[in-house]
Write a structure and sequence with these properties.
The chain contains five helices and four strands. It has 169 residues and is an alpha+beta fold.
Length: 169
């Protein structure tokens, strides 16, 4: 059983075979010779003009490629799917291909380590604004003497060094 596509291809092939002799007969003049005149010979082109045309054509094509890439990048940014509950707050490079990324996932902040083929949760980072509000509420409930006694502790080691230690480096 033949499909409609095969039937169409057979019909086009048969028409091509039948039309070929008719086209050849139409291309001859009344005397049996060709009806087309010999092509006009143009003088040789200037070699520098040929190089300039080639360079300009290449520049035009490269410009179109870069314009298309910029347009695609812009369209991807405009139509990109954004997760409203997930946001990259900060990231820092720890090596050639390793980095630490601070994410906000809903109400939580997560510190993750990213390496080739490996993503690990390093720790949950408390939200500074929530901690300040909780400290203020606790201080207001305890009285003014508790506010002066509680001084924020500052670690003697910077964040990068703490992160490297937690990664075991």
């Amino acid at each position: 059983m033949q499909t409609p596509t095969k039937n169409l291809l057979l019909a086009v092939g048969a028409l091509t075979l039948l039309a070929a002799p008719l086209c050849a007969a139409a291309a001859t003049g009344p005397a049996g010779g060709p009806i087309f005149a010999a092509p006009v010979q143009f003088p040789a082109a200037n070699p520098t003009l040929s190089v300039v045309r080639t360079v300009l054509a290449l520049a035009l094509v490269l410009g179109l490629v870069f314009a298309a890439a910029a347009l695609m990048r812009r369209l991807r940014l405009m139509s990109g799917v954004r997760a409203p509950n997930l946001e990259v707050l900060s990231q820092i490079s720890l090596g050639a291909r390793e980095r630490a990324v601070l994410l906000r996932a809903g109400p939580q902040r997560l510190l993750i380590g990213v390496a080739p083929g490996n993503v690990r949760l390093l720790c949950l980072v408390p939200d500074a604004a929530a901690d300040a509000a909780a400290d203020a509420a606790a201080g207001a409930a305890a009285g003014p003497a508790a506010n002066t006694a509680a001084a924020p502790a500052s670690p003697g080691v910077n964040f990068r060094e703490l992160l490297r230690r937690s990664l075991g480096r």
